[in-house]
Design goal:
about 80 residues; Ubiquitin-like (UB roll); about 20% helix; 4 strands; alpha+beta; single chain
């Protein structure tokens, strides 16, 4: 199996080539991946820009885990 090296919060892991960012996150920490899938945590790239969990990973990608901001619906 071919792998690519990606980083989550500064820790490198070898993820399957072609895996989604969420799949790679599951390799690193399944509980955190569940939080991202559930919307309580989010991913950002090394620049702080939101990263799509369904996007494919690539060698050398750097991700940070951040708190997800929730929008509360307001009745007017």
């Amino acid at each position: 199996m071919t792998t690519v090296r990606v980083y989550f919060n500064g820790r490198g892991i070898d993820a399957p080539a072609g895996a989604t960012t969420l799949d790679a996150l599951r390799v690193w920490d399944a509980a955190v991946a569940d939080e991202v899938a559930g919307g309580t945590r989010a991913l950002a790239d090394s620049r702080g820009i939101a990263a799509d969990p369904s996007a494919p990973v690539y060698g050398g990608a750097i991700f940070r885990l951040v708190s997800a901001r929730t929008r509360e619906a307001t009745a007017e």
